[in-house]
Structure formats: structure tokens, C-alpha cells
Design a protein that fits this description.
It catalyses: ATP = 3',5'-cyclic AMP + diphosphate. It comes from Ridgeia piscesae (Tubeworm). GO terms for molecular function: adenylate cyclase activity; ATP binding; metal ion binding. It holds the Pfam family Guanylate_cyc. The protein has three domains: 175 residues; 109 residues, no CATH class; 208 residues, Nucleotide cyclase, GGDEF domain (Alpha-Beta Plaits), CATH 3.30.70.1230. α7 runs antiparallel to α8. The longest helix has 72 residues. The chain contains 19 helices and eight strands. The protein is an alpha+beta fold. It is 58% helix and 14% strand. Bound molecules: adenosine-5'-triphosphate. The site of adenosine-5'-triphosphate (ATP) has 10 residues, from β5 and α18.
């Protein structure tokens, strides 16, 4: 919510981007997206009553209920006529024809069979939706009109008033179907209302029949029966007739006011429906953007700090951990400085070559079997890596030394990569010395702003010494390391090497991986 509040696009809530006349979105692309959203959204997995498929279904249920009520009223209030019965029969068939796919869509959604889905998509398409919507919205009004007969206006039984009220009620149904274009619904309502207005204004059925036929014997008889006193028939009948006249004007006024109300409501409904969908679409877009930004931030963070460490940092803001029997590797391109020439383009070309080489090395970290191997950093032309720092992935290994074996395999692959690189890049013949050691280390993150993940300890120092005193194209290890890995790898004794701070140390050079050695 905070994010949306800060969003500059928040203005869409106050200044809806819609055309004030047509109510279409100003941006044609957005209008297309809105219309396609209304069509059967099979990708829609969220079950919400605000989704178009639920709105369509509820609109159709309301429409069917409305038609049932109007039909019952017509059935009870008027003499049954064949055109009416035929029409109502066809109207119900159409309602069920439209309601069935909508119901299936609501119940089964994207798991509908392809044929049914095609049918649902056909009905929910923008234009078909409007054609069928216009027909269904007009059904109650047409059902009332199909009962029309001037006969009901010629009696004083009140059926003409009932008819007008029923017709007014049927006009309200043009406010249903919120997803349809409001202009279309309002025009249809106006046409239906205008027909009644024409009847009333032109008085074709003699709504005010008594005024012009005051001396009509039948009418006087009827009026006298109603009033029960023949002597006062003349004035009473006139009073009634003037009442009829007044009623006519009242109904005309009601029709006009109702039409205004329908225009207003339809417009408001469409604006709010469009805005709610627009808000949803905008929120979805914002969510996707936020997700993308979060993924980018995570990606950046994981490039600086291993994933398991960054997960801890999100909760505690400090990280420091001791690890037992971790593998540490230093791989240095020992003759990079011999090639580097700052006088040529300020050394840019050589840095590009180094970058490419490191890129090739880093591709190895993406190989799934090196999941235990973590890049620590590059120091100039030296790559530092370690294995077994993630307790979770380490726990999943069948062999407790698997991460150490993996790191040794990784070191061998680094040498192969360099060989490949030398073969591909003309004029360069890089050589690499690799130092490997295992033991206890402490890992931690230094700093609160520009974080730096690193490992420290004697194990690291000795590993560094292994490469600095190592041989080109070889992997040098300590005696302990050679013993630890001897089950899977063969080593050759190199001799005693002087290590600063440690004195003379026996070192070994990797000969090869033992035939058939596996550990996964
Ligand atoms: N976290 C680390 N990252 C990079 N290199 C490291 C790290 N820890 C130790 N080293 C390297 O290991 C080598 C051995 O370190 P040690 O502390 O034993 O001696 P030193 O006196 O600091 O080393 P030097 O004489 O090379 O400066 C050093 O060259 C140091 O750069």
C-alpha cells in the first residue's frame, strides 16, 4: 500500500484516464486490454467475485429473476396472448442458453473442455457480449410490450396503470449488465421509454377516453356502478376523468425522470466498473514491477553475499559464523601481469580479456553439481572460492566430504577452462597456479553499507600460501588435505616448502582423480 501511495501513477484514482463522453480509456492500448480482460479470462486463477466471469454470471441471474417476476406479473395481470407466450418461451430459452456456459465458466474455469471454453470465449467476446447483452437487457421490456392491447386502456379497472408500472419497472432492468457499454443500455432504455411516451402523449389508446366521450353510455353506466349514485354520475365521472388525465401526466413525468436516472446510473456504474478493473490492472502491473525490482535486488545481493547469508542478514543485520572442515581455494593467473600493458589503450583491452576469463570461470558456479562451491571474491587475477559454507546444502550431501571433493573437481575444471581459453584467444598463453586447503574458517559480513562477505582463519592463509608457492598448471595441497581427499584423488608428493609463519610444510600436487571415484 505504501508503495502504491508513493507511486506517481496514483493520479489515476483521482483523474480516471477515460474519455468523459464515450467512457472509453484514453489510451487505446489500455482500452483493448480492458476489453480483452472482459472476455473469458482462462488465465485467471484467482477466485474472486470481482472477476468478470462472476459479474457475467450474477448479471444473468439477476436478468433471469427479473424476467420471471415480470412474466408472473403479466400472467396474473393480463389476458394471455399468443405473441406474449411465444415471446416468453423464446426469452427463457435464450436466458438458459447464456446462463449455462456462464455457470460452467464460474464452476470449472480454466479446466473447461476446449469446446466449452470456445463457446464461453465466443459469448464473452466484446461484440457478441454486447449483441446478446442488448437482447437480454431488453427482454423484460419487450415481454411487457408484447402484452400490449388498447383494450386495457379502455376500461376503468386500473390495468392500464398496472401496465405502465410494469413497463417502468422493466425499464430499470436496463441498469443491469454493468460490463456493457452504458450508452448502448441507456439508448435502449430510452427507446423502450419513448414508445410508452408516444402512447401517452398521442393518447392513441384513449387513456383519457372519458373526457372526449363523457356521454358514452357504457362509461357512465360503469362509472355509476362504481360510484353507486346515478344522480352524481356526471360530476364524479368528470372528476375521475380529470384524475385519469392527471395520472397520464404523472406517468409521462415518471418515464422522463426514470430515463434520466437510468442514464445517470448506467454512466456511474460503467465508470466505477472501469475504474475498479483499471485499478486491478494497475495494481497487478505495480505488483509485477515490485516483484521484478525485488528479484533484481535479490540477484544483486546474492552476487555480493551468498543466499543463505543474505537470508540471515534480512532478519538479524549481523552475520558471523564458524565452520568446520571447509575447503578453500585460490586460483591465480600467474603470468597475467606479464601480458598487461598499460600503454595500450590504458590497459583496457587486457582488463576486458581478464573479465572474459573470469566470466568463463564463474560459469562453473552455475553447474548444479558445484552447488557447495561458493565464490568468495576475485583479487586481481586471482579467484578465491570455498566449499561447505552453507550448512543446509552440506547436510543434504550423502558423503560428509562431498563438498571437499567437489571443490577439487572445480579446481581441475578451472585448469581445463583456462586451457580452452588459451586455445580460443590468439596471442595469450595464461598459466594458473592453484592452492587448496581445508580446515576451520570463520565467515562474516563486514560493514553496514557496502557489505563485504569474506572468510578468515589459518586455513585461508595456508591455502593462499599453497598457490603463491605453487606450480603453473598444478593444484598444490597440504599434507592433511592430500590425506583427506586420498580416497577419491591421487596426489604426488612435491617436497618441503617454506611457509611464512608456519615453517617448512610438506606439500602435494594433484595427480588425478581416481578411476570411477563418485560421491553423489
Ligand atoms: N580473506 C582473505 N582474502 C584474501 N586473502 C587472504 C585472506 N586471508 C588471508 N589471505 C592471504 O593469505 C596470505 C597469508 O596471510 P597471513 O596472515 O598468514 O600473512 P601475512 O603476513 O598477512 O601475509 P603477507 O606476508 O602475504 O602480507 C596473505 O597473503 C593474505 O593476503
Amino acid at each position: 500500500m505504501q508503495c502504491i501511495r508513493e507511486d506517481r501513477d496514483i493520479k489515476y484514482l483521482h483523474h480516471p484516464p477515460i474519455n468523459h463522453c464515450s467512457l472509453n480509456f484514453i489510451d487505446p492500448a489500455f482500452e483493448r486490454q480492458y476489453r480483452s480482460q472482459l472476455s473469458a479470462d482462462d488465465q485467471d486463477t484467482v477466485r474472486s467475485l470481482a472477476r468478470p466471469r462472476f459479474s457475467t454470471f450474477s448479471d444473468l441471474v439477476v436478468s433471469l429473476t427479473f424476467l420471471v417476476m415480470i412474466s408472473i406479473c403479466c400472467f396474473l395481470g393480463f389476458t394471455l396472448q399468443t405473441p406474449w407466450m411465444v415471446f416468453v418461451f423464446l426469452a427463457f430459452i435464450l436466458e438458459f442458453l447464456l446462463l449455462s456456459p456462464a455457470l460452467l465458466d464460474v464452476c470449472f474455469g480454466s479446466s473447461l473442455s476446449p469446446t466449452l471454453r470456445r463457446l464461453v470465449v465466443f459469448f464473452s467476446n466484446w461484440y457478441t457480449r454486447h449483441i446478446f447483452g442488448a437482447i437480454v437487457a431488453s427482454l423484460p421490456a419487450v415481454a411487457v410490450y408484447s402484452n400490449f392491447s388498447c383494450h386495457m386502456f379502455e376500461t376503468v379497472t386500473g390495468s392500464h396503470l398496472f401496465y405502465c408500472i410494469l413497463l417502468l419497472t422493466s425499464l430499470v432492468h436496463f441498469c443491469n449488465f454493468t460490463m456493457l457499454n452504458s450508452l448502448m443500455k441507456s439508448v435502449l432504455a430510452s427507446v423502450a421509454g419513448l414508445v410508452l411516451l408516444v402512447f401517452l402523449v398521442t393518447d392513441v389508446c384513449h387513456f383519457t377516453r372519458g373526457v372526449s366521450l363523457a356521454d358514452d353510455a357504457a362509461f357512465i353506466t360503469a362509472a355509476s356502478t362504481l360510484v353507486g349514485n346515478t344522480t352524481t354520475v356526471g360530476p364524479t365521472a368528470r372528476a375521475m376523468l380529470s384524475g385519469n388525465e392527471q395520472l397520464r401526466y404523472e406517468i409521462i413525468l415518471n418515464v422522463v425522470l426514470l430515463l434520466f436516472l437510468i442514464w445517470f446510473l448506467n454512466r456511474e456504474f460503467e465508470i466505477s466498473y472501469r475504474l475498479s478493473l483499471h485499478g486491478n490492472m494497475q495494481a497487478q502491473k505495480d505488483r509485477e514491477n515490485m516483484q521484478m525490482e525485488k528479484e533484481q535486488a535479490d540477484w544483486l545481493l546474492h552476487n555480493i553475499i551468498p543466499e543463505h547469508v543474505s537470508n540471515i542478514l534480512k532478519k538479524t543485520s549481523k552475520y558471523c559464523e564458524n565452520h568446520k572442515e571447509v575447503g578453500v581455494l585460490f586460483a591465480k593467473v600467474i603470468n597475467y601481469d606479464d601480458f598487461y600493458d598499460e600503454s595500450f589503450e590504458g590497459g583496457r583491452e587486457y582488463l576486458r580479456v581478464l573479465n572474459e576469463l573470469m566470466g568463463d570461470f564463474e560459469d562453473l558456479f552455475d553447474i548444479p553439481r558445484y552447488k557447495d562451491v561458493e565464490k568468495i571474491k576475485t583479487i586481481g587475477s586471482c579467484l578465491m572460492a570455498s566449499s561447505g559454507l552453507n550448512p543446509e546444502t552440506r547436510k543434504r550431501n550423502k558423503d560428509p566430504n562431498a563438498h571437499l571433493y567437489h571443490l577439487m573437481d572445480f579446481a581441475s575444471d578451472l585448469l581445463k577452462k583456462l586451457e580452452q581459453f588459451n586455445a580460443e584467444i590468439f596471442n595469450f598463453d595464461f598459466e594458473m597456479a592453484i592452492g587448496y586447503n581445508f580446515g576451520d574458517v570463520t565467515s562474516g559480513v563486514i560493514g553496514t553499507t557496502k557489505l563485504l562477505y569474506d572468510i578468515w582463519g589459518d586455513t585461508v592463509n595456508i591455502s593462499s600460501r599453497m598457490y603463491s608457492t605453487g606450480l603453473a598448471g598444478k593444484i598444490q595441497v597440504t599434507e592433511d588435505t592430500a590425506n583427506k581427499l586420498s580416497e577419491k584423488f591421487e596426489f604426488e608428493y612435491r617436497g618441503q616448502i617454506f611457509v611464512k609463519g608456519k615453517g617448512d610444510m610438506k606439500t602435494y600436487i594433484l595427480a588425478k582423480k581416481k578411476d570411477g571415484a563418485t560421491w553423489d
